[in-house]
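Q: Got a minute? One more chain.
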Amino acid sequence: MNGQLARTSATVLLVCATSLPAKADNLFSADRALAAPCSGCHSREGLLPPLASRPASELRQALLDFRAGTRDGTLMTRIARGYTPAELERIARQLGRPEQ
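A: Always. Here it is, folded:
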């Protein structure tokens, strides 16, 4: 039941985030909503290391590799395939450390 609830919540969140107008004032909140499900596992209190300390470009490449199936990841491969490359870019920018 918890797995189904999590998938349903992520789907609803994704639909809400992608249905927002692409205006500049809504873009930040849309990106934040798009990346929100990641914190379930990748937060300070999560099961896996937080993502904020990693460079955005590194996160972007990892997400694209998961999506392409060229990087091993039991769950992440399936999750990443649910997003477009553009959405993965937005998630990486939202969660990752800005480039120096």
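A: Confidence is low (pLDDT under 50) at residues 12-24.
Q: Perfect, thanks.
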